[in-house]
Amino acid sequence: MARRSRWEDVKAGRGEPSSTTRAAVEQDLALGQLIHDLRVQAGLSQRELAERMGTTQSVISRLEEGGGARNRIDTLVGLASGLNRHLVLSFPEEPPSQLRDAVQVV
Length: 106
Known about the structure:
The protein is mainly alpha-helical. The protein has a single domain (19-106), classed as lambda repressor-like DNA-binding domains (434 Repressor (Amino-terminal Domain)). The protein is 55% helix and 0% strand. The chain is built from five helices and no strands. The chain has helices at 6-14, 19-41, 46-53, 57-64, 73-82. Helix 3 crosses helix 4. It is flat, with a radius of gyration of 17 Å. The model has no long low-confidence stretch (mean pLDDT 84).
């Protein structure tokens, strides 16, 4: 009989993530995809964008994979600058019906 790995034991003990956790992960992934799409559209490699931001390629990779930017406005400002874009942070009472080049967090 095959033995389960330690990682499988850890996963089994955690159970299913809450809907809040699942939504946060989906938003992180959507932001990562947007960062990737904007970088590719700008014709930049991860390394080139990292140089513009004064960081490393591995940071850009982590951001594009959906991690590392949560609650880090300074990171998002650096991304916007590196991509020759603007970062707009808004707290409207009602969300706009459509956003272009954006990830809507509700």
